[in-house]
Amino acid sequence: MNKRSWVRIALLSPAAIVAPVYAADYLSIPQAQELLFPDAGTFKEHTVLLTASQKKQIKSISGMSQRWDQQRVWRVEKAGGFLGWFIVDEVIGKHEFITYAAALSADGKVIGVEILSYRETHGGEVRDAEWRGHFKGKSLSDPFKLEVDIPNISGATLSCRNITDGVKRLLALHQIILAHESGD
Amino acid sequence: MNPVIELRRMKPQLGTFVEISVGGIRRERLLQAVSRAFDTGALIQRLMSFHDADSETNSLNREARRAPVQVHAYTYQVLKMAKRIWSATGGLFDCTVAPTLMEWGYLPRHLSAAGNYGGDSGDIELQPDRRVRFRRPICIDLGGVAKGFSVDQMVKSLKNDGVPYGCVNAGGDLRFFGNREYPLQIRLPGAPHKFMCVGRFRETAVATSAPYFSAKQFRKRRVSPLIHPASGKPMIGRRSVSLFAPDCLIADALTKAVILDPDFPQPVLRQFQASAVVLSQSGGVLSLNRL
Question: What structural domains and CATH numbers belong to chain B?
Answer without folding.
Answer: 63-141 (1.10.3980.10), 181-291 (3.10.520.10)
